[in-house]
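User: My notes are a mess, but here's the protein and adenosine-5'-triphosphate's SMILES. Can you give me a structure?
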Amino acid sequence: MSGVSVTKGAEDAAPAAGDDLVVLSNVNKHFGALHVLQDIDLTIARGEVVVVIGPSGSGKSTLCRTINRLETIDSGAISIDGKPLPAEGKELARLRADVGMVFQSFNLFAHKTVLENVTLGQLKVRKTDKKAAEDKARSLLDRVGVGTQADKYPSQLSGGQQQRVAIARALAMDPKVMLFDEPTSALDPEMINEVLEVMQQLARDGMTMVVVTHEMGFARSAANRVVFMADGKIVEEATPDQFFSNPRSDRAKDFLSKILHH
Ligand SMILES: Nc1ncnc2c1ncn2[C@@H]1O[C@H](COP(=O)(O)OP(=O)(O)OP(=O)(O)O)[C@@H](O)[C@H]1O
Ligand SMILES: [Mg+2]
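Assistant: No problem, the inputs look usable. Here's the predicted complex:
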């Protein structure tokens, strides 16, 4: 294996034991007859970057959505920072702020400016005052490279710019963990890298991240761990180096041969 690697390295980056941030224990979920999540056990440490990959329909999006309770679970338990997910009300709103989510479709508020998109949650959920919220929004927009777009509406931005605004909007809530569900899949190819670079930087800054993506370059360089799902189960978990060079299961081998040679 190559001596020079930009991978964080499982050993170097391994956070202290007991610093588990997101814990899923024996989680099960059905959609009618479909057992979409089957006995999922997954622990994500503070500062860890976990990339989730797997075939279409394997349950990756559903897994993400359970972590901020966009989907409920049938059995098992999920906790964030030692606390079980709240069921409703203000507590749930706060959870959604603590667990930032970025989707394939940018989901910005179309009738609000970029700046308003990034201040809204701060004002409503975090009760930040307006001046502080705007200052923070502008600094985050600068950080993701769209500072000059603050007064435009989302439709006036490219897809890559909109997705970076969506990331800034989630970051404005000071989330404990960020979930990304195929954040670059809807983008034109030339815009993919500008979004991945923002995500790479976040990872380097120590953000805890769960990333569903088909971008294997990102997985190799940013992930501490790759989780491979198939048919509602976690089939394999490994460091990126281990997973890509030596997948153990036939399902993973088959999946990798399809995505790496196409
Ligand atoms: N709200 C729902 N009601 C019923 N079935 C659903 C619902 N959401 C997802 N499913 C089904 O659950 C399974 C898993 O879906 P999910 O979106 O989690 O897969 P995925 O791994 O994210 O797939 P993809 O790679 O295509 O995004 C699929 O068979 C899907 O059709
Ligand atoms: Mg999905």
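The first strand starts at residue 20 and ends at 31.
User: Great, I'll file this with my notes.
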